[in-house]
Design a protein that fits this description.
This protein has five domains: 42 residues; 91 residues, Immunoglobulins (Immunoglobulin-like, Sandwich); 65 residues, Immunoglobulin-like; 72 residues, Sandwich (Immunoglobulin-like), CATH 2.60.40; 69 residues, Immunoglobulin-like (Sandwich), CATH 2.60.40.10. It has two helices and 32 strands. The radius of gyration is 52 Å and the shape is flat. The chain is mainly beta. 12% of the residues lie in helices and 40% in strands. Strand 1 and strand 2 form a beta hairpin.
Length: 467
């Protein structure tokens, strides 16, 4: 037998090295791939869900603090927030009061304004648009209101501050016993002790005269009508008087406003109020700006005259308006504004615009009443109005009539206008009268054209037919 080769085993299809191929093994690999794919998909879905949740939560939170796309927080008691809508533009404005909304003062205590601010998220500081109304009189007990109004782009939010002026606590005046009473009592004690007999009863002892009146006493122990030892001697005022002003030594009043004098107080060194003896001189004319002096005087017990002086400063608050042209015109006119204001702050024009100008020229194109308001730094204001009625832009209207005379033609024009008729025009020639007489007779059936100007410079025409 020859070499016999070892016959390779016949491997059937579907075997690997004679080992039956496991289709389940390939399937597990696919399953792992699918599981990895599913895990990746789940991870992506989870991330998307988390992002959606974050977006929803953010929308819920921010929606509570936005208004028309503008950040909005809940206003505090001392502020007000408004949003102005203008098409697609939204402007958020804030009016804020500094300090407390309610301020308590004692009568005579000086009031210091804490101030305010107004802001816009588009323009920044707009405090110049705030108008303060009301005033505080700390010399008079009561509750005063100060109103702060933001007049801006058609809105006018207002905040109010209360200033309560309370009465001063009343001090109990203690009446001092005059020194003369004390001395009188001591003298009486001495007299009583000296009038007693000595213990030895010696007839040679000397006793002081009795303090009783010479009338003596009656048998019943009653006193005679000669007088009484209990009557106190009259106490005359002694010492110095103190004189001082009530309120401030310098008071500011706006021109055209009102002034109430706070007076003065005088007290002597015994605590007695002698203010009724004060004499006051001087007066205040609040219609004329200037410095006025009020003098308070009283005589001291030693004859010296005491005086204190209060300066009352009436601050100028004037505003004058006039036109640069008061004659009829078909053009615009200018209102010339001139202010005379101490501590000037701003000028508000008729269109609501506030400008920092003391002198201003305001252009108008239509007739009407125009109001200007001037403010000082204390928030006081003064208004002035002017009526514009000389602007005429309408053409004059009229008719004409023709009368044929024997050897002439007469044209009569009836025209009217708001500003009045100035002159008439026919065939290029000007006439001052409304009746034009031609020295010739015109042919019948001819149509004539006449013109006329009003006093503002407007031109009108009329046609008439020759009869």
């Amino acid at each position: 037998m020859g070499n016999t080769r070892k016959k390779k085993p016949d491997f059937k299809e579907g075997t690997i090295n004679g080992v039956k191929s496991s289709s389940s093994r390939r399937l597990s690999k696919q399953e792992r791939q699918q599981q990895e794919y599913y895990s990746l998909v789940k991870m992506l879905v989870s991330c998307i869900c988390v992002l959606i949740m974050v977006f929803v939560l953010n929308w819920i939170i921010t929606s509570s603090f936005t208004f028309n796309g503008i950040y909005y927080e809940e206003p505090k008691d001392n502020e007000v927030i408004e949003v102005i809508e203008d098409g697609e533009t939204h402007e958020r404005v804030n009016l804020h009061l500094n300090g407390k909304l309610t301020i308590k003062l004692t009568e005579g205590e000086k009031y210091v304004e804490p101030g305010f601010t107004a802001t816009s998220d588009l323009k920044g500081d707009i405090s110049d648009y705030v108008i303060v109304s009301g005033k505080v009189d700390t010399e008079t007990v009561g509750t005063y209101q100060l109103k702060y109004t933001l007049s801006y782009r058609g809105i006018s939010p207002t905040l109010t501050r209360l200033v309560k002026v309370e009465a001063k606590p009343i001090k109990e005046e203690t009446t001092k016993k005059p020194e003369t009473d004390k001395e009188n009592t001591v003298d009486k004690d001495k007299e009583s002790s000296s009038s007693k007999p000595s213990s030895g009863g010696s007839s040679n002892s000397t006793t002081k005269p009795s303090t009783k009146p010479s009338g003596g006493s009656n048998s019943n122990g009653g006193s005679n009508n000669g007088g009484s030892t209990n009557t106190k001697p009259e106490v005359k005022p002694q010492g110095n008087i103190t004189l001082k002003l009530n309120g401030n030594a310098t008071v500011y009043v706006v021109e055209g406003g009102s002034y109430k004098d706070a007076g003065a107080k005088a007290t002597d060194n015994n605590g007695t109020n002698v203010s009724s003896k004060i004499t006051v001189s001087g007066s205040v004319n609040t219609n004329v700006a200037g410095t006025y002096k009020i003098t308070y005087s009283i005589k001291n017990y030693n004859g010296e005259t005491l005086t204190v002086v209060r300066n009352v400063i009436v601050q100028a608050m004037g505003i004058s308006l006039k036109l640069d042209n008061s004659a009829p015109t078909n053009k615009s006119v200018n209102i010339l504004v001139n202010t005379n204001v101490d501590n000037f702050n701003r000028l508000m024009l008729p269109n609501g615009t506030k400008v920092p100008n003391k002198v201003y020229t305001y252009k108008v194109t239509t007739n009407g009443t125009y109001e200007f308001v001037v403010f000082n730094t204390a928030g006081n204001s003064r208004k002035a109005t002017i009526i514009v009625k000389n602007i005429d832009k309408d053409k004059p209207k009229g008719k004409c009539y023709i009368t044929q005379l024997s050897d002439a033609t007469q044209i009569k024009i009836e025209a009217s206008d708001y500003s009045g008729i100035d002159k008439y025009i026919y065939s290029g020639k000007e006439y001052n009268e409304n009746t034009i007489t031609l020295t010739r007779k015109l042919a019948s059936g001819i149509q004539l054209n006449v013109g006329f100007y009003d006093k503002a410079g407007n031109y009108g025409t009329a046609n008439c037919l020759v009869p």
